[in-house]
Amino acid sequence: MSQQSGPMDEFLSTPHCMAGTRGLDKMAPGSPGSSSRASSTQDSPRRDALTQMSVELAAISANMLTRQDKKELVAELRLAIREEVAAVRQDLTALEHRVDELEVQRLQAEQHQRATDLATSRQERAHRALRPPRRDGLPRDLVCCFQSFQLKETIMRAARTLRTINYMDSHVSLVDNRWLAVRWPNDVPRFLRAAGLPEIPVPNWILDNPPTRPTGPTVPAENQVDGVQQSSSTRRDGPSAAEE
What we know:
This protein is mainly α.
């Protein structure tokens, strides 16, 4: 019976295995000195890195602030902040005093201006018209009374030459004063229309209540001459023609 051979036979054969064993036996074992030198060569970069890190940590530790340094720094900051706050308070106090001075000066200037206006103004008075507010929302008329009639006439003549007067974006018109008087019952309707008042029935005070003649003390008959009463003073001035 024949034995089949394969590609692995040469590796599984005994002579080859023995030859391989003998080849390994011929290698000399390594010396301990060579292994220690190799390990020291590998540890040298690590040692240098650790040394460098130690130096850097020492430098960082030397630059770090101690507790005393921190206390001194905090004290300096507090002192600086207090000085700045004190300076700000001083500025605010000075500003407050300045505002008070300006307020007093403003009041004094206003009082002086008012006194000057009262001393130099030739208007006796000026006020709004005493009437109800207008329905169109416009302000009521302004009534001015001048001390000088000539000044008033001068202003009115100048106003008649101007069609429109604009003052502070407002249209101003000047009209002469108007007197409303009621002397007779027929004047009542015109007065009401001019004053803008509703129609009011007013009795005719002349016809309803006619005036009566004034009554005086009775004069004695001896003091009457031709039906005319004479006072006692007339008799004392001289004798009348009848007595002569």
